[in-house]
Amino acid sequence: MNDRKCRFCNAELTQSCVNLGMTPLSNSYLHKDALNKKENYYPLHAYVCGECFLVQLEKFESAEHIFSEYAYFSSYSDSWLEHARHYVDDITSKYPITSNSLVVEIASNDGYLLQYFKEKNIPVLGVEPAANVAKVAQEKGIPTYVDFFGRKTAAELALKDKKADLLIGNNVLAHVPDLHDFVGGMTLALKANGIITMEFPYLLRLMSENQFDTIYHEHFSYFSLVTVMKIFASKKLTVFDVQELPTHGGSIRIYAQHEDFGKHPSSRRVDDLLKKEEAFGMYELSTYTAFAEKVKATKRAILEFFTKAKNEGKTIVGYGAPAKGNTLLNYCGVGVDFIDYTVDRSPHKQGLFLPGTHIPIYDPNKITETKPDYVFILPWNLKDEISKQMKHIYDWGGRFVVPIPEVEVF
User: 45, 80, 318, 407 - which has most CB atoms within 10 Å?
Assistant: First the structure.
């Protein structure tokens, strides 16, 4: 264990946060001809650094292996698109982002966000490592640089006069194995008076609401505000504002600027959230140990629901094929013995099988055909959107189930 080092401060990692056993990569969906072939499983064990309190996984696969061909397309969630549109309206009303500016998004996916800047005639550039996803954005007319972001890519953009007035990263920071290269790249890619906004799942909410399924191999790190501020400060970037968001079960959006050139004063919200973290116990290792016990209790409750329902002869299907669902199902040992199939709106996932559990993925119309007793919502953070889309299950007496923060049937 002594050879494990923190990816930020290089301290030895000796303190376990939560151990979710051995699982396949959460986005390694299977074709039918691969079902009888060997799958690779990796330890899904999160540690917390006793020095900087960064929660992190060991790196077992390279980012290139995980992200160069990706199954997640952002535009298949209506609520996420609405979140993106609202952000664009908000940021352009608060800051002078105009047709003379350049907005650069790191991990721009299929253009789900930049399209709304484009509608306002604001120049945009996406940086996206997954060529299959970037192609969709390019077909929308969104310029997209196909590469992983870091110091090298940032330097190339700077040479092409592509420094950003607004540099955005939504749900990418957790996916980065080399934080020094990534955040150092942001320093290089940002104009002197530019602004950075980054959104990522919030560690405090993950722990307080038992969201263990947001831990998976594609997420190398899990962040508190205090830790992110240390990481950014190490690259001469200052966090001057923060917002708590409901997305992904609870996220934060930080606003940052150059330490030496930035002109925006620090918001009171930064100090308020730091105090909230301290009160929660984010700087005490015992808090992380307690979280592990809560996760075990949640697993038992989930299995109790499935066992009781199946003993009563009920049929259960899933809704969604998200990465978080694959963590939950593999950790809890839930496969086709409990869930007949799952459905997903993304045609890129339909016809495939979930990693590890081999649960088949169909079009959502399958639910109307089979009329199950329960629809188990795997992307529980989208339960309102999904339950509205699928409210017709009530016509035959069907009910929805969400597993997090606790099992709820409605």
Answer: 318
